[in-house]
Amino acid sequence: MDHFDYQNGTMHAEGVSLEALADAVGTPFYCYSSATLVRHYTVFADALSGLNAEVYFAIKANSNLGVLATLAAQGAGMDIVSIGELKRVMAAGIPASRTVFSGVGKSADELREALAAGIHQINVESIPELKTLSAVAVDMGVTAPIAIRVNPDVDAKTHAKITTGKSENKFGIAWEQAEAVFADAHAMPGLDVVGVAVHIGSQLTDLTPYRDAYTKVRGLVERLRASGIDIRVVDLGGGLGIPYDAETPPRPAEYGVMVKEVMGGLDCRLAFEPGRMIAGNAGLLVSRVVYVKEGLDRNFLILDAAMNDLIRPAMYEAHHTIVPVSEPTSDALEPIDIVGPVCETGDTFARQRMMPKIKAGDLVAFRSAGAYGAVMSSMYNGRDLVPEILVNGDAYAVVADRLGIEEMIKREHIPDWLERPSLKEVAG
After folding, report:
1. Which position among 1, 343, 418, 427 bears the catalytic label?
2. What pLDDT shows up at residue 419?
């Protein structure tokens, strides 16, 4: 469920007209619904009732400060994968003590900065990282609370680019090495081995891989405790899918039942890191049609949004439902390719998508664009980074300004050894 619907013939975000927003901020733009963010967080948290559970929003899905502050107000902690993301969290008014630091490539400087900020937990993913963190913590005179991420070699049965729990993936400690690595970490100075972490992928639509991975992790926890390592936390990651098209992912309540069946009675604090499930359907990308181009064997809807604004279709062959902002008055549909203006054939959002009649100047909205949309955007082809809007009832705020090419050019410099040609010379 989301809070985007037609009201008086025009799509609204809660009580705000998307047409009015387009007039106010220009297109393209991202629009997020506070009510949807809150609802999705609440549904997920409620599914874990009865467990000793903490929910950390995976901000790689959507790191807008307004979104983070909205979720923090509901009680969410934050899951980060870089020191830059930690700075975003803290800029949103959320302390590092409510933040888990994941990621495979944390540098010594990043680890030092996270410890100095008072990070709640560091999820370690390799033996070199363990050694680096131990040395940093000893040098700082602190003890680093860590979980060790294990790779359970479980196929999440999701897209190859977003599966993370198979043996060939770069994430976590190999399952066969896990117990030895935990024993080594337990003996290292400066480390407090509080937990086991696991994350097998994103956009999962079946509970079976979760059950398989979590069952293996439970057994590992029991063996580690028997060996004298006091495991108090199990970080179960995120990855629960959302319906972009015809998918039927498990509901959070079903996921919660499975977790209770597998992890019940383990007497651990459980941590969860949802991202897409919270933010995905809480956001739209709104774009205006520039041209309708008639081709020999197909027609093209050319938008002012492009792959630099929403990379998922080009990178993952991902589906996004695209709807007109003005409610169609006819049920008639026709096939059309929906594309952007970037100089790439890959700048294609949909091929032969059945759409109502749409003309140049009309607005369209990409549904389910609240996760991995704005965070993955770029200024490719000299295009703007588009604004982001957060709606709350009948109010809205611009929570990210449009960033234009002028600002980008300001950060670049011609070296002294190159003479800048004058306009007169260029013209001559």
Report:
1. 343
2. 76
